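Protein folding task:
====================
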Amino acid sequence: MRSFIAVLLPDALRARIHEAAGVLRQRGAAVSWVAADNLHLTLRFLGSVDEATLGRVREALAEAGAATAPFAVTLGGFGGFPTARAPRVMWVGVTAGAEPLAALHARVEAALAKQRIPPEGRPFHAHVTLGRARQPRGAVELVEALAAPAERYGEAPVDAVYLMRSDLHPAGARHSVLAKEALAAR
């Protein structure tokens, strides 16, 4: 089952981000855009995992959640990976709350390692993915728009981590919640 670990965003914030990303979509670049309902902060992509592994992931999330106090993140500004000049992934960044989010990511990775689930192997960069370029050269049509001054889109409480299922369909991925672990440290 294709799965990932995420922080989900409130409906109003997802709608605000989707609306703001309209300036990118209007440029007609060959990009597969993420539906508003699927906007989230990914903590860890797991890929295709079996039921036994999902059980170990649930245990890891319970451990990480118990060791983390709730906090908030503020989202704003556009960016692109791997570079802003040849963006293959378009995103919205975290302008406040990146440090506790990175600490949560580190706790999740440590708890997954205890469950014998190897690390993802790339640095964590907190962001909300807006879309992925369909051309190998990236979405160069978006370079100017991605460089615009950062606009603040809103704040989201981070009070739980979610184990998510992702099913790929021709019209786009469909995500569903497999498990939720509250952040419970005080």
Observations:
- The mean pLDDT is 94.
- The first strand starts at residue 2 and ends at 8.
- Helices lie at 11-20, 22-25, 51-66, 98-114, 143-146.
- The CA atoms of residues 63 and 111 lie 7 Å apart.
